[in-house]
Structures are given as C-alpha cells and as structure tokens.
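>> Question from a student workshop board

For tomorrow's exercise we were told to take the sequence and the ligand below, predict the bound structure, and bring the output to class. My setup keeps failing. Could a helper post the expected result so I can at least see what it should look like? The ligand is flavin-adenine dinucleotide.
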Amino acid sequence: MSVVVITKSTPDTAARVEVNAAGAVTWGDAQVVINPWDEYSVTEAVLLKEAHPVKTVALTVGPEIHAEALKQGLAIGIDEAVRVWDDGMEGQDSLGYSNAVTATINKLGDVDLIIFGKELVDVATDAHIFQVARKLGWPVLGAVSRIVTIDFAAKTITVERLIEEGKQTLSSTLPAVISVLKDINEPKYPSFIGIRKASKAIIPVWGSADLGIGDSGSASAALVKTTGYANLPVRQGSVEIIDGATDQEKADKLVAKLLEDKVL
Amino acid sequence: MSGVFVWIDQFHGKALPIAWEALGVGRKIADSHNVSLTALVFGQGTDAVVQAVFHYGADRVVKCDDATLADFRLEPYVALLDKVIVDEKPLVVIGGGSTRGRELLAAAAADTNAGLLADITELTIEGDMLQGIRPVYAGKILSTAIIKGNVQFVTIRSRAFPTPIADPSKSGEVISVAPVLSEDQIATKVIAFEETKGSVNLADARIIVSGGRGVGGPDGFAPVRELADVLGAAVGASRATVDAGWIPYAHQVGQTGKVVSPDLYIAAGISGAIQHQAGMRTSKVIVAINKDPDAPMFKLARYGIVGDLFKILPALTAAFKSKLGK
Ligand SMILES: Cc1cc2nc3c(=O)[nH]c(=O)nc-3n(C[C@H](O)[C@H](O)[C@H](O)COP(=O)(O)OP(=O)(O)OC[C@H]3O[C@@H](n4cnc5c(N)ncnc54)[C@H](O)[C@@H]3O)c2cc1C
Ligand SMILES: Nc1ncnc2c1ncn2[C@@H]1O[C@H](COP(=O)(O)O)[C@@H](O)[C@H]1O
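>> Workshop helper replied:
Here is what the output should look like for this input. Compare the format with yours to find the bug.
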C-alpha cells in the first residue's frame, strides 16, 4: 500500500520573473522551491503515513531542477523519491506528462492514492491532475479541503471539496487521485535530520525506455506547443492619491471619480 | 456534424456567467469556420438554461437531463461528453475555466487524446489553428501556445472575454441524449452539500472589496462587508487574514487563493505583497486604502486614499449610498 505525491519545483514566489532578450524565462538568482501548493500535499501524505501502514513516494516529471521538490519532500518525511525524465520529454504537453506519470505509477505498483497540490503556481495548470486520473482509469476528487475518512483496507475515501458554490462531501473508492487545497493542513517543515537524510538520498531517474512508453511522453507527440513568452505591457499612468480636508471629503471625491470613469 | 461545442457550466439549474463568455468565444470560432455552434447542457432541471443558451448565441443544444447529473461528478459528466464528441466529432470544445470546467475538459481531452489550451485570456484564430495566451508565473509574464489535432479543447479564464449581448427572440433545435453511466457504475457519491450563504462568486464578481491584516480581527471585516453590500460586491481577503482565521479560505485572493479580474477592486488594509498581486493584478481599476503611504499596493492602484480604513470605508459606504440612491 502506498501513497504517491506528485510535485515540481518553482522559482520562489517573490522572485522577479522576466523574459530576457533571447526569449527565455529568467528569475535572476532567486531560490528554487517546492511548488507552494505541494507543501500541503506532501504534508498530507506524511500525516497519512503517521496514521496508516502506508509507504510514501514523491514523484516528479522534469529535469534536475525539480529534484529540489523531491528533496524537500524527503526532508519533510516522505520515504522514497523518483524523478522521471529524458531529453525527449522537454516540451511535452499535459497528455505526454500524464502518459509518463501513468506508466510510472504502474511500474511502482500497489499505489492506493495519488495526491497533487491544487495546481502549479508558475504555469497555473491543473489539467495534468485530471488527465493522470483518466489515463489510470481512477476516480479523481479535485479541490479537497479535508479528508474526512480514508480506509486503505476497505479501499474507500470520503472528502470535503470546495466548489464555487460551497462545500461538497463526496465518497469514492480507492485507488483514487486527489488534489488538495491550502486549508487541508498546517504544512510541516523539514527537520534538521530530514534535511541531512534528503541531501544524501540518491534519487533514481527513469526515462521513456525504462517506462516502456515509446515517444508518448515526448515533445514529438505533443499537440500543444508553447511558442513563446512575453513580458507584461507596462502599466500606464501612476496612482492618483485622493486628498481632502476630511475622510468624508476624500470618500466623496473618490466616488465622484469612479462614477465619472464609468467604473460603476 | 462537425462544429464548435461549448460546455455550459450550470449549478442547480442556473448557468454561471462564464458559460456565456465561453459561448461568445465559441460563436467567434464557429463564424470564422462557417460552422454551427452547439451548447452542451448536462444536469437536472435545466430547461431555463437550455432556453437561455440560444439567447447568447447557440444554434443548437445537446442536452442530457438526468438524476445522475444533478450534482457535478466527473465520471458521469466526462463519460457523456466523451460519447458526444466521438459521435459528433466537433472541431473545438470550449468550456469556462471554473472548478468544474477545468476538470471536465482536461479529462475529456485525455480520454480522446486531444490537446488542451488551458486557462487562456486571449485567443486568435489563424486558419484552422488556434493560438492562446495566458498569464504564467503568477501573472508576471505571458505565455503563448498553439494547438493542433482533430478535436481541440480550450478553457477560458473568467471575465477575460466579453459576455455576448442576449437576444431573447432566438431559439433553436434541442437534441436530448441519454446518460452513459448509470448510478451503479459511478464510484463517486455525493453525501452532502453545504452552500456558502450570501456569497458572490469571486471569479465572476464585477466589484470586489477586500480586507487585509489592517482590519485587525474578524470583526474588522464588518466595514468591508457593509461597503460590499452597498455595491453588490464580493468580499475578498488577503492570506494574512485567512491564516489568522478571521475569514474562511474561500475568500482568499492571490497566488494560493482565487485569481480575480473585476472591474473594480478595493483593497483596504492590504500591503500589496507580490503573492496578493498575483490574484488581482488584472483588475480594471484598483483602489488602495492604506494608512501607510509607502504600501506597495499604491504602486499598482489607479486611485489611493491614505488613511484609516475604519474611517474611510464607512465614509465610502455613505457616499455610495447617497450617489447610488440607496
Ligand atoms: C508561497 C506563498 C503564497 C502566498 N499566497 C498568498 C495569497 O494567495 N494571497 C495573499 O494575499 N497573500 C499570499 N501570500 C502572503 C503574502 O506574501 C503576504 O504576507 C500577505 O498578502 C500580506 O497580507 P496583508 O497585506 O493583509 O498584511 P500586511 O502585509 O501585514 O499588510 C497590512 C497592511 O494594512 C495596513 N493597515 C494596518 N492598519 C490599517 C488601518 N487601520 N487602515 C488602513 N490600513 C491599515 C498596513 O499599513 C499594511 O500595509 C503568500 C506568501 C507565500 C510565501
Ligand atoms: N498559452 C497556453 N495555453 C494553454 N496551455 C499552455 C499555454 N502555454 C503553455 N501551456 C501548457 O502548459 C504546460 C506548461 O507549459 P510551459 O509554460 O511551457 O511550462 C504545457 O503542457 C504547455 O503545453
């Protein structure tokens, strides 16, 4: 029985991200960190391990830079890590990604639950979460704010999920895929011993050949292709500070301006 | 019959505004290819929605009205969508990027091995190729992507595309189809639902009034709510206030909360951290209210008032009340 968390690295959220003259995305010397949503998924996996007889595995699909997220996971208490990558995967689309993950899950075997963070903060995609589930043929419960019950022996799970209109309680069978939101737990941070253990860990790298997936995880099979990046257009104008003798006068002036601009 | 399909996101018989935005995008693509626009309405008790989709531009409707579809669950919805796609072979399938739309279209794209242009804010049609732009890295830069394949999936971000002008005289052909999965074939069961009371969906909101740590505590949201009520606005919040337990997470705006794009965003007592900006940067007009004249939010704002939010917000509420005649 095992629980797999699927994660990636991202430049620190405070980083200044820019497109350089060559068209590449740069973030100066900002640190690379685990995708912030994945702090919750990793923590949830470790909490499950503390309460149930399950093994935990962290998985990433991506070049070396994404090993950072795996190391963070190991330092927080995940048992094992695997990185999936080969050069042909650079530029894969979300279907290629899902094919690679599906083959990895099958190769690992005996997986009952896959946990993703809600989305990748950098590219803001979550399509891969639902596509992995469909490729595996497993039910998927997205935007989970709480695992109400999970029974690895009976193979059932009940969760609360947040949708636009409110909170839904859903049950499903295992194996399943879930994506988790920020209020599912209080993230755990790496311990000193955990960091030491993680820095020594040797993380295996599996490529398309190891997974036996031909080119179905590669860029050559991609239907969606990123053609370029651009900086934002410069924001016009600067702030107009509304002054007045009293607070009410300031408020009246602002309201008049908003009505004049037809904002309302 | 290969045309353009738009999946209509509806909840308990009421369509979300983003469904109309998606129909507008669908109409544009359908017209440029000279094909018809089909709206897909799945659910239970959706007659009103079916009528309305014609007003917003659909030529025909494929509907499935069934108890298994009363609440959105991915399995029965995607099984049905897959079947409609295989039967009718559309060129393009569009959906709103709501929680449901993002899940459903991603899943159907996987099942039919098709490409997905996700969460776009701009779309260009070049011949039979679609090109989408969307903000990435928390909106700090833009990414452009193209898509190929026989069926192409597109999801759009809320409020990025205009709502078509409704024409109530329009109607069209309605085709009813049967569900694909029966209840005993669906692993996921809905046990309970708790509606968030009086909430305006942040992603759809035209006006948002947000409070930050400056509100000082849970009761500090009262003046924020009072202003929001007068404006018919949604209430937003910074992460600092959510983490402090002053307001539920559903209100959080930012990188690890909701991404919003209202016509007017009023930020009261929010410093304007980069992660908060990630969620509201594309708002049309931003108003910052902060007692610190150096708060970063003033750099992003169109209008600013330097002052105490506990004085400024009630003053604004009074001013709007008298101007809007409430
Ligand atoms: C990975 C990551 C993800 C994050 N995601 C998000 C996110 O999604 N959303 C988010 O908001 N933040 C997010 N943050 C947190 C973010 O960095 C800031 O800490 C947070 O936005 C600060 O909230 P705030 O502006 O309310 O508080 P503060 O920064 O403390 O600002 C409070 C402001 O209120 C003003 N003020 C105080 N009293 C008054 C008064 N009486 N009248 C007027 N003004 C007053 C102060 O001058 C100050 O500017 C994230 C951080 C990280 C690291
Ligand atoms: N504008 C876009 N619209 C839709 N999908 C995109 C877009 N840009 C990138 N993607 C997809 O998002 C994922 C990450 O892309 P990237 O920005 O290249 O890291 C890949 O699956 C891309 O194909």
